[in-house]
Each structure stands twice: as C-alpha cells, then as structure tokens.
Amino acid sequence: MDKISVKVCLGTTCFVKNSANKPKLKELVAEKFGDKVEIVGSPCLGVCSTNWEISKAPYIKVNDVLIQEATVEKVLAEIEAQLAKGE
Ligand code: FES
Questions:
Q1: What pTM, to 2 d.p., does this model score?
Q2: Rounded distance between C-alpha atoms, residue 2 and residue 20, angstroms
Q3: Which residue owns the Cα nearest ligand 1 atom 1?
C-alpha cells in the first residue's frame, strides 16, 4: 500500500483558523503511524474561496478525502479508516 498523504492547508483562511494544530498533528501521526503517513503543508486547497461566508476552514486532505473544520482527532480517524481499508 502506498503511503497516505496528508495535506495541511497553509493558505490564509485555514492558517488563521489554526490549520488543525499542525505541530501536534505531525507528532501524533509519527508516533501512531510511523512512515505509513506523510504530512505536507499545501498552499490554499481552493475550497475556502468557493464558500467564504460559511467557510468550514481549516481544511485538510487525507489522500483524496477533504476534511472540513479539521481537527487532529478527525484527521487521525480518517487515516485509521483509510489504513483499515487498505489492509
Ligand atoms: S486557505 Fe485553505 S482552502 Fe483556501
């Protein structure tokens, strides 16, 4: 199975809304999943501009799955779900 790719949006909208506490996320992911998961920062994923008024930032993508109002817990749960599917 390929590595799971986690893209943390670092665009302005997501950044001001905390981008799911990236340092904590990185630490927990490394601890729980080792090298099965790769976390990268990404420029604006393009979602915030389509829906400014009811923005659900911060956004994070786990492979192709977009997570709205992303929290560390939501991202870890999605990674676990995808790893379970891939095994
Ligand atoms: S700033 Fe995150 S989707 Fe645009």
A1: 0.88
A2: 24
A3: 11
Whether residue 13 has its Cβ less than 6 Å from ligand 1: yes
Rounded to the nearest whole angstrom, what is the distance from the C-alpha of residue 60 to the centroid of ligand 1?
Answer: 9
Fold designation for 4-86: Glutaredoxin (3.40.30)
Rounded to an integer, what distance in angstroms lies between the CA atom of residue 8 and that of residue 60? 5
pLDDT 10s digit of each residue in the chain, 87 long?
689 999 999 998 898 887 656 778 999 999 999 999 999 999 999 988 776 555 788 999 999 999 999 999 999 999 999 999 986
* Ligand 1 close to Cβ of residue 66 (< 6 A): no
Residue spans per domain, the chain = 4-86
Rg (CA), the chain: 12
